[in-house]
Amino acid sequence: MSALEVVRNKIKEACLKAKRSEEPVLVAVSKKKALSELLEVYNQGQRVFGENYVQELIAKKVEMDAQGAVDADFHFIGHLQTNKVKQLLPYVSTIESVDSLKLLREISTRAEALQKKINCYFEVNVDEQESKGGFLPAELNALAAELPSHLKWIVPQGLMCIPDPEKNSRFGFLRLRELNHYHAEVWGPGLSMGMSQDYETAIECGATVVRVGSAIFGAR
């Protein structure tokens, strides 16, 4: 059984445990992995990949297309600088790490220029770590107020988080779920949360997207 099959089976088991009928989207986090490794899991049926670096994502998307894997769907999941948005947008369907109003505005402007709708998740700093970006919980009302003016080219999907690794991630997941209730009709009902070490817990807490790297590809 491949590593990808193991992860998929664990996702099914977590959904059964949580009495969920719909499985979350599995994003295979492929940063720093060779194209051959992406193609291997693509050939096992995986279609959604997550990358943290703009240049690496673009190179891999171009190569995957050249290999005939044109339906490989790339999500950007890392910190995105505003000056890289224009370069990135032609190659992605989804940005999971919109972490400021400034970035939101830039994506909206560039998406309009490209005439391309972009799916967005909004990153929340659930543990309010000083060293981490993302919207603080207290800033979400400002996001909810501004977001409707950008809906022509931005398709809001929900919220995303990466809990403090020094804490029990379950608390961060439950906090994100709680925060999502306030304005889910504005920024979308989705919850992108959970990585290799805690995706099963995230599923139990309501994740609609899980981002799994090392459990599929091995350690970097």
Structure characteristics:
alpha/beta; 220 residues; 17% strand; 8-stranded parallel beta sheet; TIM Barrel; 41% helix
Low-confidence stretches are: none
Amount of beta strand: 15-25%
| Tally of discrete structural domains | 1
Query: Share of helix among residues?
Result: 40-55%
Question: Could you explain the architecture of this structure?
Answer:
The chain is of the alpha/beta class and 220 residues long. It has a single domain, classed as TIM Barrel (Alpha-Beta Barrel), CATH 3.20.20.10. The chain is built from 9 helices and 8 strands. The chain has an 8-stranded parallel β-sheet. Strand 3, helix 4 and strand 4 form a beta-alpha-beta unit. It is globular and about 45 Å long.
Topology:
Blueprint: H1 3-17, E1 25-29, H2 35-42, E2 48-51, H3 54-66, E3 73-76, H4 85-88, E4 94-98, H5 101-114, E5 118-123, H6 140-146, E6 154-160, H7 169-187, E7 190-192, H8 199-204, E8 209-212, H9 214-217
Parallel strand pairs: 1-2, 1-8, 2-3, 3-4, 4-5, 5-6, 6-7
In brief, what are we looking at here?
This protein is α/β, with parallel strands linked by helices. It has helices at residues 3-17, 35-42, 54-66, 85-88, 101-114, 140-146, 169-187, 199-204, 214-217; strands at 25-29, 48-51, 73-76, 94-98, 118-123, 154-160, 190-192, 209-212.
